[in-house]
Amino acid sequence: xxxxxxxxxxxxxxxxxxxxxxxxxxxxxxxxxxxxxxxxxxxxxxxxxxxxxxxxxxxxxxxxxxxxxxxxxxxxxxxxxxxxxxxxxxxxxxxxxxxxxxxxxxxxxxxxxxxxxxxxxxxxxxxxxxxxxxxxxxxxxxxxxxxxxxxxxxxxxxxxxxxxxxxxxxxxxxxxxxxxxxxxxxxxxxxxxxxxxxxxxxxxxxxxxxxxxxxxxxxxxxxxxxxxxxxxxxxxxxxxxxxxxxxxxxxxxxxxxxxxxxxxxxxxxxxxxxxxxx
Length: 278
Ligand code: ATR
Description:
By secondary structure, this protein is α/β, with parallel strands linked by helices. It has helices spanning 22-32, 49-58, 71-77, 83-88, 108-119, 136-147, 160-170, 229-236, 245-251, 253-260, 268-275, and strands at residues 8-14, 37-43, 61-66, 80-81, 93-96, 102-105, 129-132, 153-156, 173-176, 190-193, 217-220, 240-242. Helix content is 36%, strand content 19%. The strands form 2 sheets. It has a 6-stranded mixed sheet, sandwiched between helices. Strands 9-8-7-10-11-12 form a 6-stranded parallel sheet, with helices on both faces. Bound molecules: 2'-monophosphoadenosine-5'-diphosphate (ATR).
């Protein structure tokens, strides 16, 4: 690690923040690119988030990531928003400009699409995509899919009103009953799980894939376990699967580039390093 008096500083604000993989991930890149800088965990309670973000500039920070539960509060606290942050309604990356102003970006959807492109070269945006879940993570995925040119999106969620509200807000999305989630897969080119189902310690995702066509790509934003039951089932049928770890790795790239001035690469060495600690 290089850490001089001129080191560039960034970090991640969360509450709690101890679970965050971001310090490990950015630390790997700082070492790899021999950058004079540091990326630190910042445990910030919810009532202090605005104050903490404002302090970034006084402390000489280049910016930070914000994670649960601060993404919506950061959206309100920054001075400017990128277009994608506006659409998603939440901020996960903050940049401090030369005058101390704060720009809020959201790179979750970017990370999702980059991961998909890297893991499923054959994925075609012309085909419909089916998305499970209607929480904050789903919103990022839906915006990213629309921005990538997917015209046809099926959205299904246990609480239908939530899916309907999201569909009404974003437009061009068809809501399907949760009970029909296994029966709407015939034409889809992409199936995405954005719910917490299938995550270690959570209920399993009860889903039948027999109606899914063989060319469809299946991805899960859950990365613990790395191969969720959904991905295992899809893989057994011969579908291309993309695990959720790459989304975490790719979403970190724009922030790193902005703060430290190097476009970082996602590769197997980084994946293995982050995996060792999952
Ligand atoms: P996030 O911001 O990570 O998306 P969230 O807003 O809590 O988190 O959303 C979690 C998603 O998982 C929701 O789509 C939720 O469905 P509801 O809107 O009906 O709550 C879904 N989810 C969680 N537990 C579930 C379960 N047991 N069965 C079906 N869906 C579930």
